[in-house]
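lol ok so funny story. i was supposed to be doing the assay writeup but got distracted and ended up predicting the structure for this chain instead. priorities right. anyway since i did it might as well share w the group, maybe its usefull for someone
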Amino acid sequence: MALRVEELQTAVVSTATLEGLVRERLQMIDIKIREADRVFGRNVIIVDLAVEFGVPGLDKREQQRFVYSKIIESLKQRRFDVKIWLGQDTTRLFIAYTIKFNAEQKAAMSEIIRETRIEREQIEVFCSTEWEESGAKNRSVPTLRPPPAPMAPLVTVTGLAEPFASSTGSADEYKIEPRQELPPGPP
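and the output, tada:
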């Protein structure tokens, strides 16, 4: 069978030189992504790419087209959001990704909150309850018991920080005020 031009073109585009250039650039990009400071939410890494690669037989645009398209394709396959800016002297690649809690992490956090949530009506009982240790070793499990008698009004005592340091012991040195009602909380 005779050799055709199409076969030669395919062989040139898949040369080790171009693939090596793409691999080097991707390794450099991966290092930048790994070393970047990450935050919850959207993260954007900006990478400058060369505009010429020095591959004989291909003009500047053909080299760029091959290398840039392979880099973008690789990043998109790995689920990065990618945009490219083509300048005269430099090419800039914007690589974005989002860090968020996965469904399993969200469910675990929600379960912790659900297990410890208290209703407004239970706050007073909870705050006046004695805690009893029970259950597994090194684990404290609260037991709610109603108060033994009707509770006296809650009060706040203000006065001297150290009553015995300079106090005469008189009740006039202390001001007793009723405690404020709790502000409305979440439903």
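The chain has six helices and five strands. The first strand starts at residue 41 and ends at 49.
back to the writeup now i swear
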